[in-house]
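for the writeup, i need someone to sanity check this before i put it in the appendix. the sequnce is what the collaborator sent (i think, or maybe the updated version? ugh). structure was predicted straight from it, no edits. if anything looks off just tell me and ill rerun, i have time this weekend
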Amino acid sequence: MVRISKSFKFFRKRLLVFCIFINLIFIFPNSIIAHETYGDAMNWYRDKNFVIDPKQNFLIGIKFEDEGKIKKALYFFKLAADNGLTEAQFKVGLYLIKSDDQEDHIEARKIFQLLSEKKIPSASFKLGWMYEHGIGGERNIIKAATSYKLAASRNQNNAYLYLANLALIDQSNRNILLAASYSSIAKKKKVKGSKRLLNSLLPMLETEQLDEMEILVSSLESEIQKIKTN
């Protein structure tokens, strides 16, 4: 009973300190104390080994992000990310992409690769975008297409439009039929911009290609469905 009582008191003390800390951030964000002693507060909090739930760290990060305090926001996103919160890991990846440091881009690609393997749709999409543009490593259109297809199989429907654009990248060998087919699927999924792209591509197709397009659309949808079930 004594041991339980001591544990409860210790927990209550930690909770009280955490609440005070949160109040400094959220209730008095512009106060002299909260502003000038932020670094000291962070060091003190770490030294005392106070444990905050990763989700709480993430929400604090969101609060700072909304206020435009990016450095502080990233600090808390990283805390949450280090404890396995996928939303925070994704946020950290996005900030690393914006960095001017190539090493940060490499780290971002690793993050999105890991999140894609965890079947996070937006991570698969972002990984495809990085492969397409050669950010964080080699430019690889085949890997970009693979990642976009993964994203599409996970209901990230704007990936269909990006697959259409991939088919048009090589100016000397543009695959208009493939691009139109992906645009058609994107249009069915109500992806913004897909109707305009499709309308611009259809006049470029021969009559027999329009007949082929229906078959190709069905084949592409089947391919994505197979990826989804694997």
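Confidence is low (pLDDT under 50) at residues 27-37. The radius of gyration is 24 Å.
thx in advance!!
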